[in-house]
Every structure is written in structure tokens, then in C-alpha cells.
Amino acid sequence: MNSAPLGIFDSGVGGLTVVRAVQELLPSEDILYLGDTARLPYGSKSPETIRQFADEDVRFLISKGVKAVVVACNTATAHALPQLHQQYRVPIIGVIQPGVEAVLEDAGAARIGIIATRGTIRSHAYQHALAQKRTGLLIHGQAAPLLVPLVEENWIGHPATREVLKTYLNPLIDRGIDTLMLACTHYPLLIPVLKDLLPGDVRLVDSATTCAEHLKRELTRLELLASREREGTLELHLTDLSEQFEDLARQFLKKSPGRIHRAVLGP
Fold it and tell me: Which DSSP symbol is given to 199?
């Protein structure tokens, strides 16, 4: 199984920030990515629908022979991960627990801000996971629904993006946060702007980097790391193809995505 690819899925192409982080950390691994672009966003769907979609995503990846699956979608992790663990024997890793563990590595972390989609904030998944691991934390969740479309428009450095970010961040800054969790895979692209807007002592924890580091530890523990010394390949599958998604894939990966395949999902 060591030579089998890793499977990574998200509701769109935002999970490619996780792919990029995995490629940097585990350059020998082949990766098969599935973006359910025909049915995005997951954040506005009911928990039952999200669980159904996530199940179909995992089934597709397993049919391609992957050795492990990364749920590179905060909403799907929040609502579907326990069910996926029950249904499948292949190792399945979400993005929430790695982020929580990374926050708590700092013994001094006490006031935690979380920015995410409405669906992720509404699920309270991060809030519950943090509170279960450490008592006494002050946790403030902030839904930030405008950030995904701004990132996808490539308005990273646009004044409008800065103003929207200020609106979302100011209540968290006023509460004296010492840590900010970027609980959406689109948000790592905003790190340069966030660093400019946040007080210098606020620590940033992002889903992509923490997930890649957790994946490496798990693959090492399970003895599933690729053993060959060569550059891994990336195969992209999207449920809806368009020039927009191809441009976004290039933006998230910081390089050409190569040929993109059309994926057909089903029960």
C-alpha cells in the first residue's frame, strides 16, 4: 500500500491549499484530489446532506485505490468524520483535530479566535474540540462568509478584502485573542494580509499546514509513507469542469494543475 496514492477531497478547490502543504512536506507521495465543484458550497447544506456527499466523495477515492483519505473540508470534517470512521477501514483524517492540537501546543494559549464559514461556526466543532482538551479557554467563533468569494476572485490584496477582514477581525481583537484559527482551507492565501491587520503577538494556526503535519505523523505511525525517492504526482478530479475552476486550481497550487478529470459521483 505504500506506493498507493493519498486521497484528498473538498467541496471545491480550496482543499488544494492542503494538497500544496502535503506536497511540500511529503514530496514523494502521489495525490489524488477530488473537488465536488458541482455541489459546492457544503457550508450552506444540512448536516444530513453533507454526510451523504462526504460518503460519496470517500467512496470515489477508495474506488481509485487510495491508501488514506484527507477530508480537506472543515464543514465535512465537522459533520461527517465520525460516520466515515465507522463506515470505512481506510485511515481517514480531518482538518479540525490537527488544528486544535496545534493551538494547544502553546501552553499559554488562552483566548482563541476562530474564523470560518457559517456552517463550520454553526457546528461548534472547533469550539467543542478545544473545550474538551483544555478547560478555561475563552473561545470566540466568527463566521466570515465573504472571504471565500473574495479569495476565489483573487482579490487577496484588494482594499475591499482588507475592509471585510477588518470587520470580521475587530471584534476578535477587541476580545484580546492571542491565537487565530483559520478554519477554512481558503484562508491560508490570506495570511500575508492577516499578519498586516492583526497585532504582532497573535499566533496564526491554519488548516492546511497543521493537517499536512498530522498526516505525516499518521502515515509514519501506520508505516504507509511512500518509500521511493522521486517526486510524487498529482491527479485532479472535479465534479464540474470550467475555466474558472482551472484558474482557481492554478491560484491555490501556485503552479499549473495539469489535466483535470471529470468525476462522476453516485451512491
Answer: -
Indicate the residue among 170, 191, 207 that finishes a domain: 207
Are 176 and 242 found together in one domain?
no
Provide the Cα torsion 164, 43, 141, 215; round to 10°. Answer: -110
Question: Max CA-CA distance within the chain?
Answer: 50
Same domain for 14 and 103, yes or no, is no
Residues contacting 141, CB < 8 A, separation 6+: 114, 116, 121, 124, 126, 127
Rounded to an integer, what is the distance from CA 109 to the centroid of its chain?
Answer: 22
Active site residues: 73, 184
The reply to whether 36 falls in a domain is yes
Write out the residue range of the structural domain in which residue 115 sits. Answer: 97-207
132: exposed, middle or buried (Cβ count in 10 Å: 0-12, 13-18, 19+)? exposed
Give this prediction's pTM: 0.92
Encoded amino acid at 215, one letter: L
User: pLDDT digits over 68-108, tens only?
Assistant: 999 999 989 999 999 999 999 999 999 999 999 999 999 99
Instruction: Respond yes or no on whether the N-terminal peptide bond of residue 188 is cis (omega within 30° of 0).
Output: no
